[in-house]
Design a protein that fits this description.
The complex is a heterodimer of chains A (166) and B (289). With 166 residues, chain A is mostly helical. Chain A is built from nine helices and three strands; from the N terminus they run ββααβααααααα. Chain A starts with 9 loop residues before the first strand and ends in a 6-residue tail after the last helix. The chains are: A mainly alpha (166), B alpha+beta (289). The interface between A and B is large, with 51 and 57 residues.
Chain lengths: 166, 289
């Protein structure tokens, strides 16, 4: 490791489309995959690090999220409120397709906090939706026979028809 | 969750639509963990993969009350096998489980996993209940216990109850479920006889709640709104340690002997997590404090 202070150093990342992003090393630390690559390299990483699974749109969003969160955390007052507001807007700004794409990118780059936030967001999206909607969302096929479905419905009866309330 | 970083550069087409096949298992598990139990059961219907993921023990362990081992020991007898999945344990705890020869019922609210309890009028100590001049037990389908205690008239109204149970840690609210007037059915329609209802507007009733660790609450309230079931809030208590039994004692009294009172149906006492007062519609209008 060189003697240059870590917070000054910039890392360059290259997306699938070839776009280059300059990222402060303090931010790069949150991209654990990238950080692992840096740690494993014997010399200082000077050339752009290619990210073969990450597209410009996703990396841009991830860096936006991280930059904002770092900014909130270093602020003094009302960080929680502002962060919550930012997170809500961030979640709303994406279509379902973009949300899923972002999860894949965040998972690949191993951005823990963002990933948890995105998982929670997906959970909120599918919370009260029908089985059909959720199947569509995840792009999965129903592999049950009608008999099996019936049996499953009975098995799960307790969760829907529980104790009557007044 | 270390992902091996590959430096081989392979151009990929933009994902047209990411599917479950692309979402890593840990993400799916995390998403499921954020859902409430009824929704998780719905997810089991998606396909076999989801069914397996949604049945995972660690998912249901997080929904169970932390003291579920103690609850199992208290509620179920020895025939309850030890090798049930956490999901099965949750499902069983969500049923209306009977205690005290059916005089108490205990269950987990299926969405939140919080514990609720209901004590029948038979499980309460009602002064003078055996004197048919004052009290009668009448069968009704409007009670979980299929019968309520009906007070025709008395000078001394006193109802006392006790509970000794390992409530999970949290704050609970106690309610009396009461009906002024006697309801019945005539030609299939509900009718209510309020001719015996009297005295409740003269002086308020008094509620008290004690716990063995020194908590105490007391309040007063006039009983009103005849012909419908009302929940009267008697008090709150807080449990810190769910691994030991919590002992509480509570009472509802109106012992001012200058006037009689009557025409009251006492169904049961209910104990709910205090946060239910804000979310459950039937408790929104609970009267008293």
């Amino acid at each position: 490791m060189s003697g240059i202070s870590d917070t000054e150093r910039m890392i360059t990342l290259k997306t699938v489309e070839g776009t280059l992003f300059d990222v402060k090393s303090s931010i790069a630390k949150d991209l654990k995959t990238v950080q692992a690559f840096i740690d494993d390299s014997d010399d200082d990483v000077t050339s752009p690090i290619p990210l073969p699974n990450v597209f410009t749109r996703e990396l841009s969003r991830i860096l936006d999220y991280l930059n904002n969160h770092h900014r909130f955390r270093s602020g003094i007052e009302k960080a929680d409120e502002e962060m919550a507001r930012y997170d809500a807007e961030f979640a709303k700004s994406m279509s379902h397709e973009e949300l899923k794409a972002l999860i894949l990118a965040a998972n690949y780059l191993n951005v823990k906090d963002l990933l948890e936030f995105l998982n929670q967001t997906v959970a909120d999206v599918i919370q009260n939706k029908s089985v059909e909607f959720v199947r569509n969302f995840f792009g999965i096929e129903n592999d049950y026979t009608p008999e099996e479905e019936e049996k499953l419905r009975n098995e799960n009866e307790w969760a829907f028809n529980g104790v009557e309330q007044d | 969750m270390g992902i091996l970083f590959s430096s081989t550069y392979a151009r990929k087409a933009p994902p047209s639509s990411p599917t479950l096949a692309d979402l890593p298992e840990s993400c799916v598990a995390s998403i499921i963990g954020y859902m409430d139990p009824p929704q998780i059961c719905k997810l089991a219907m998606l396909n076999r993969t989801f069914r397996a993921a949604s049945s995972a023990d660690f998912v249901w362990e997080s929904k169970l009350p932390p003291n579920y081992h103690v609850l199992i020991a208290e509620i179920f007898d020895q025939t309850f096998q030890n090798n049930h999945s956490k999901r099965a344990i949750y499902a069983n705890l969500c049923r209306l489980n009977s205690l005290d020869e059916g005089n108490k019922k205990v269950w987990l609210d299926r969405s939140t996993g919080k514990l609720c309890m209901c004590i029948s009028s038979k499980g309460l100590s009602i002064t003078g209940v055996d004197d048919r001049r004052y009290w009668n037990r009448i069968p009704t389908e409007e009670s979980r216990f299929h019968a309520v205690a009906y007070l025709q008239q008395t000078w001394w109204f006193e109802v006392i109850g006790e509970v000794d149970f390992p409530f999970p840690a949290g704050t609970y609210s106690l309610f009396f479920r009461i009906h002024l007037g006697r309801a019945g059915k005539r030609f299939g329609r509900r009718v209510c006889n309020t001719e015996h209802v009297h005295g409740w507007d003269k002086k308020p009733v008094r509620f008290q709640l004690w716990t063995s660790d020194g908590q105490y609450g007391s309040s007063q309230c006039f009983l009103k709104e005849p012909a419908k079931w009302s929940f009267y809030h008697a008090g709150d208590f807080t449990v810190v340690n769910g691994n030991v039994s919590t002992k509480i004692k509570f009472s509802m009294t109106q012992i001012d002997c200058t006037h009689t009172k009557g025409g009251l149906c006492l169904d049961s006492v209910l104990i709910y997590p205090s946060e239910f007062r804000k979310v459950k519609a039937f408790l929104n209008h609970s009267l008293a404090s």
